[in-house]
Amino acid sequence: MKKLESDSFDVNGVWEFSTEGDCEGRATKKLGKFTGNLFDGIKQYGSQSYYALSCKRVDYVSSIEKSPEKKRVHFKVYDSAIEMHDSNDALAKLTSEVPGGHSLVNSNYYGCVALEWEE
């Protein structure tokens, strides 16, 4: 059963990842789905992003999968608990959920934040 939408943000779920398909941002390239922790999905698809990843929740789950990839990934989160294209709101709501050894910083891309880590 799907959780009721609320103001609290859960990083675990089923996420669809996409990126810009061209330099003008008119096309979207779907990269795939990931089940688990949002940040692990960002790391998995990070090397396939054009400018930035888009992360859209498609379902809620409680399981977590691990698969590291890249050292810095720019991304946007589409969830009712986070204001659309508001990187400051995303930072405020996601920073406390960032796994150890990782950090969340402002991105130079519109509406994005960046996840940074060392492998």
Q: Give a short account of the largest sheet.
A: 6 strands, mixed
If you compute it from the alpha carbons, what radius of gyration comes out, rounded to the nearest whole angstrom? 13 Å
| Quaternary | single chain
Q: What helical percentage do the residues reach?
A: 10-25%
Biggest sheet: strands side by side, in what order? 2-1-3-4-6-5
Show the helix and strand layout:
Blueprint: E1 12-20, E2 28-37, H1 38-45, E3 53-59, E4 72-78, H2 87-94, E5 102-106, E6 113-117
Parallel strand pairs: 3-4
Antiparallel strand pairs: 1-2, 1-3, 4-6, 5-6
Please describe what this structure looks like.
13% of the residues lie in helices and 36% in strands. It has 119 residues and is mainly beta. A 6-stranded mixed β-sheet has the order 2-1-3-4-6-5. The longest helix is centred in the middle third of the chain and has 8 residues, at 38-45. It is globular, with a radius of gyration of 13 Å. The mean pLDDT is 85.
Could you give a short description of this structure?
It contains 2 helices and 6 strands; from the N terminus they run ββαββαββ. The chain has 119 residues and is mainly beta. Strands 2-1-3-4-6-5 form a 6-stranded mixed sheet.
